[in-house]
Design brief:
Number of helices: 4
Order of helices and strands: HHHH
Structural class: mainly alpha
């Protein structure tokens, strides 16, 4: 049984976290008006929340495979076993995030909540 440390999970997590760091610091925050620990606390809170979302989305193809396991053999239904869950999740959370209205609103809310946690002012 594949575990959480398979190469797909590691590559997907790295891609999501690199893109998350870029999004978290856009627009560039005025770091002179905050402390370093508060910035990193907010950044790690954002990383943790996106990590939970990444794992949740990454497990959905397996859930889809279980739900469609009763499909007839040779049908045109794509099962979760043909889809790499972690890499699909990384694709959704990096390149396709602006095109998913619910996920983009969730991401904006998470970023705002984490920036409020760190008392990070935006650049004006």
């Amino acid at each position: 049984m594949p575990g959480l440390w398979d190469w797909e999970w590691v590559i997907g997590a790295v891609l999501v976290l690199v893109d998350a760091q870029r999004r978290f610091n856009t627009p560039r925050s005025t770091r002179s008006s905050m402390t370093v620990p508060r910035y990193y606390l907010a950044l790690w809170a954002y990383f943790l929340s996106l990590g939970i979302l990444f794992v949740s989305l990454g497990k959905m193809p397996q859930l889809f495979a279980v739900l469609t396991s009763g499909a007839a053999e040779g049908s045109s239904i794509t099962t979760g076993s043909e889809i790499s869950g972690p890499l699909l999740s990384a694709l959704i959370l990096t390149a396709l995030l602006p095109n998913f209205p619910i996920l983009s609103k969730l991401d904006e809310w998470l970023r705002g909540a984490c920036k409020d946690l760190g008392s990070i002012p935006g650049e004006t």
